[in-house]
Amino acid sequence: MYPLDYIEPVFRPPSEASSLILQVTNGCSYNKCTFCDMYTAEGKQFRPKPIDQIEAELKGLTQHGYPVRRVFLADGDAMSLSFRRLKEILELIQRYYPDLNRVSSYCLPRNLKNKSVQEMSELHELGLKLLYVGCESGDDEVLRLVNKGETYDSSLAALSKIHQAGIKSSVMILNGLGGPELSGQHALNSARLMNASQPDYLSTLVVEFPMGSDRFAEPFEGRWRKLNKVELFQEMEVLLSTLELEKTIFRSDHASNYLVLKGVLGQDKSALLDKVRQAMANPQQAGLRQEWQRGL
């Protein structure tokens, strides 16, 4: 049995399925976003894992001969650690796995406020190659209502710092987050944020609430409801129409999405828009996921 002392539940991006999930923190230091129930379970209070415990886990894995090509730093807020601690962790990973392809992590924009470009560049040189940034929206009103604790400006500042350091960024936008009333400005300002930052990867997920939406909807004071399929496609059409990206890999293929979209923006923009418009005009012929097929 491999010596990994996980505090469950543990989450990771779909693209990290084959990575070593190295839990260097527990939970999320912010944990106030009303759309997120990931770190609300008992025992998920935020705390860093002691460095000697991290080293013991890495040492144990190498003793068992466990092959590692990629490492994902969990939980949801590993980049909240200080530059010094992150450097120490990356140096340990390099010591035990010198031929590693990459290290990646979730990242909140606020995590980088007290880290300089030079420090981020140093982390990149030590193997940190990709950061998954949950922007959720580029619209300040939507961000305030969902208690994200970020703004358009703070998100752009973080994405710019990541780019300047040579690290790749993978950004997530939540389709339907603003409900019907704020759908247009949510899509427009999210596209504006992406145009200004030019992320390497962009993905969209449909916002869902398996545990109920009451806590989320309350700040909207009756102005929010879940978008239906056609409304989701209309919001996607606005987003895609407004995006002016040079070479961003775009994915809208998470299990929450009704319509699967994949391409590179901007070369595939017209084809992706055609697919969205066909789904709006004739949903029955668009090959949409059925409700039972959606992983929520």
Compile the SSE list and pairings.
Blueprint: E1 20-23, E2 25-26, E3 47-48, H1 51-63, E4 70-74, H2 83-96, E5 102-107, H3 117-125, E6 128-136, H4 140-145, H5 152-164, E7 168-175, H6 183-197, E8 201-206, H7 214-217, H8 229-242, E9 248-252, E10 261-265, H9 269-281
Parallel strand pairs: 1-4, 4-5, 5-6, 6-7, 7-8, 8-9
Antiparallel strand pairs: 2-3, 9-10
Helix pairs in contact: 1-2, 2-3, 5-6, 6-8, 8-9
- List the uncertain runs: none
Summarize model confidence as the mean pLDDT.
93
Strand arrangement within the widest β-sheet reads 1-4-5-6-7-8-9-10
Q: Strand-residue fraction?
A: 15-25%
Distance N to C terminus: 30 Å
The largest sheet, given as strand count, sense and whether it forms a barrel, is: 8 strands, mixed
What's the quaternary structure here?
Answer: single chain
Name of the CATH first level of the largest domain: Alpha Beta
User: How many helical stretches?
Assistant: 9
If you compute it from the alpha carbons, what radius of gyration comes out, rounded to the nearest whole angstrom?
19 Å
Provide the succession of SSEs. EEEHEHEHEHHEHEHHEEH
Range of helix content = 25-40%
Overall form: globular
**CATH topology name of the largest domain:** Transcription Regulator spoIIAA
Summarize, please.
This protein has two domains: 1-107, Transcription Regulator spoIIAA; 133-296, 2-Layer Sandwich (Transcription Regulator spoIIAA). It contains nine helices and ten strands. It has helices spanning 51-63, 83-96, 117-125, 140-145, 152-164, 183-197, 214-217, 229-242, 269-281, and strands spanning 20-23, 25-26, 47-48, 70-74, 102-107, 128-136, 168-175, 201-206, 248-252, 261-265.
